[in-house]
Amino acid sequence: MSPADRFSRLPDLLAADADLRRRGRWLNVECRVDIGAEPFYLDIRDGGLAALQRGPRLLKSVAFCLRGSEDAWRRHWQAPPAPGWHDLFALTKRGAASIDGDLRPLLQNLQYFKDLLALPRRLPETL
Amino acid sequence: MAPALDPMIGRYVRLEIDGVAHRLYFEEAGPAGGGAIPLVCLHTAGADGRQFRHLLADPEITRHYRVLAFDMPWHGKSSPPDGWEREEYRLTTASYTAAVLAFCHALDLDRPVVMGCSIGGRIVLNLAIEHAREFRALIALEAADFQQPWYDTAWLHRPDVHGGEVCAALISGLIAPQSPSVNRHETLWMYMQGGPGVFKGDLYFYRVDGDLREKIKAIDTSICPLYLLTGEYDFSCTAEDTLRTAAQIPGAEVQVMKELGHFPMSENPAKFREYILPVLERIARQRT
């Protein structure tokens, strides 16, 4: 299963995590996460995923965009991840990921986003 | 039934730091006399002395050591000085060094061992540079002469972002994934409890004022032994940062700790114990 295929399972993974949705209950934002060359558009409402759109959407506006290489996400989702690949900012510090746009909603809900983006780690690696 | 008391005792000490009156909170455990070695523990930026509660409660350590952990001014139960509301808190190499020396002198400690983590580790390097003769040994955890910044500290203190939560969320990634959940979250809780702007003020020392790259070669480990230990999951002070620093200090002992991050003493006390006990045993033997 490719990293993008793993990330496409995000709706089920978040639906199964009531605690993470509780912690994100004040959050409403549209953002974009790139898994390698493949963009995903997340519409987050009250901490849940109202929509996850896979693939390019022309002129779609988002608050912020988080980009990581396929290799970065693959390593990030290993259980346990290796040192230097285990945290969002470990990835950005080493240049394997980047963030741009309005970072305020990200920083206001930082632990929520870190945990959200780590959810594919829960999928069996043999998938 | 007898109360289930932890062995450490907490007290306040009145002292002056650079001529300014302070009331510092500290906890201690272990014998004050009888040849016990004072071991002063310095917490990380934006946290407090509770990070060392497992060391304070470890009879293997307090058998030889009088362990003391104080909360830096502005941290934990140590209040900021009078008039704090009229200034922006900024820790500097000079003010941090003065605070550590003032505590050791106020408690009348005889050539203590100082063990500090993160900013505490960085200041331990400065103690080795400027005050080596006053200490029996120095232990720098998660320390280097300089580290590459990995985020903008402006996010740590602004009205539209919860300071405690963003501080904890930022540093959460510095904890090893193998660390027990209960210890991870206790470590994070301390960060959530920091005063507004205090973590940011500590990082002024870390990022702006405390660059020791030019001074590090002055350390003479024949005067005071120096131990450096860094967790492999610490991407703020990486193992490479610590190894590069140690390589410039003849005689420095360096170790990379497996399955540990930036907060070894609080994120995984059992694992940290495997690394720190042999160091403390060596220091205890060194004086005989």
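Chain B touches chain A at residues 148, 150-151, 155, 160-162, 165-166, 168-170, 172-174, 176-178, 232-233, 235, 238-239 (CB under 8 Å).
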